[in-house]
Amino acid sequence: MPRLSLPLALLILVQIGCSNESDETKNSTDFDLSLLNRAQTIHANALTIDAHADIEIPGKPSMYVGADGLSKVTPKKMQKGGMDAVVMSLAVGPMPRTPQGYSNAKTIAQTKLSAVKALVEYPANNTVIAKTTDELLSAHANGKSALILGFQNALILGTEINYIDSLYKSGVRVFALTHMGHNDFADSSRTLFDGDTGTREPDAEHEGLSVLGKNAVRKINQLGGIMDISQLSTDAAMQVMALSTTPVIASHSNVKALTNVSRNLSDEEIDRIGQTNGVIHIAPFRGYLFDSADPEMDANIRKIRRESGIDESYLYPFELYWEIDDPVIKKDFLTRTSALLGPIGIEEMLDHVDYIVKRIGIDHVGIGTDFNHGSGIIGFNDASEALNVTVELLKRGYSEEDITKIWGGNFMRVWKKAETVKR
């Protein structure tokens, strides 16, 4: 694997160090460069995996892409940041639970699948779709980037589980049953608000999983897929873990004890994931790393929500910007709330990693960015900056073995177990 480029911040640091003759500055620069060299070595040797990112359709306008107008996980950005693989999710947002809604959801999933296939067919990307752990290891050994296909929101399935077989045959290996809003399979951690009627979904429709949802878990286990509990309600997540014959992952979920928003994981869920040998992947998503504990700030954010035309009375006022349909209003909402929240960076993200490690151990934590869906923080705003995370992990005293587990080793353990159970 080629030697990684210096992150911009450290390049600036080096330049400052070269112009300052004080011993203190020289020692600081040498220390940071030493950490950078160690981080580069870790990324060169480890198999690094981002457990969740959304798929951007080329040419389709998006407010979530990078400043260059491209996906935050392009092959070039992955290579620059030393990222070997990313789970690309065939995800859809809320839609009417009608035949037309199910059809539209399936069409979106197929369009995203076609976009991923087109990406890997372009030789310059040097990228493959990995359908097995052996294929992923082979790609890594041959210096190729790899994409693992994921699935999010059983709305794509309509009201039957048969389409899961087709998705698996297409290469999907990671399965999450919900996005925002309940569906016919499971309850979501984030209920929908109807602006026309002023009503919100009940917190529970199925008290967790429906019969369809339980059958889907069994089907995914039989095929050798990985169950992903991110964005399920607590009851649904606990039921998936009780049913699943293999460990589960949370592909992009943070800690509710540190950031009290509905889609983050409670201590009960965290403990259960540890007991079942699963993995929680922490996301650099500002809205899930910040707790609105300041009453004045909370009131200000609710005011912005009212002015944006969305439900300001809901318990978690700063996270549900997906309810805004107008892209101009949505961008304005995000800009204004971001200004109130202030800077959030890798330190806040790694506090969540530390929490998981202290509570259930190093074998149960990973990173799932949720890039291309609003995620990104100072220092880790796309795949090219992944090395910055490793530098900060080293500063916190994590060993090379620890970091190798966080950056993909734990994910691989779960995937291998799913393959073994299938066999």
Name the overall outline.
globular
CATH topology: TIM Barrel
The CATH H-level superfamily is Metal-dependent hydrolases
CATH architectural type? Alpha-Beta Barrel
Structural class, by secondary structure, is alpha/beta
How many strands?
Answer: 11
For this structure, what is the CATH class? Alpha Beta
What does this structure look like?
The structure is a single chain. α2 (23-45) packs across α13 (386-395) and α10 (295-308) packs antiparallel against α11 (327-341). This protein has helices at residues 8-19, 23-45, 75-81, 99-121, 133-141, 163-170, 211-223, 234-243, 267-275, 295-308, 327-341, 346-360, 386-395, 400-422, and strands at residues 49-54, 85-91, 127-129, 145-152, 172-176, 193-194, 199-200, 226-228, 249-250, 279-282, 365-367. The protein has one domain: TIM Barrel. β6 (193-194) and β7 form a beta hairpin. Helix content is 45%, strand content 11%. With 423 residues, it is α/β, with parallel strands linked by helices. Strands 1, 2, 3, 4, 5 and 8 form a six-stranded parallel β-sheet that branches.
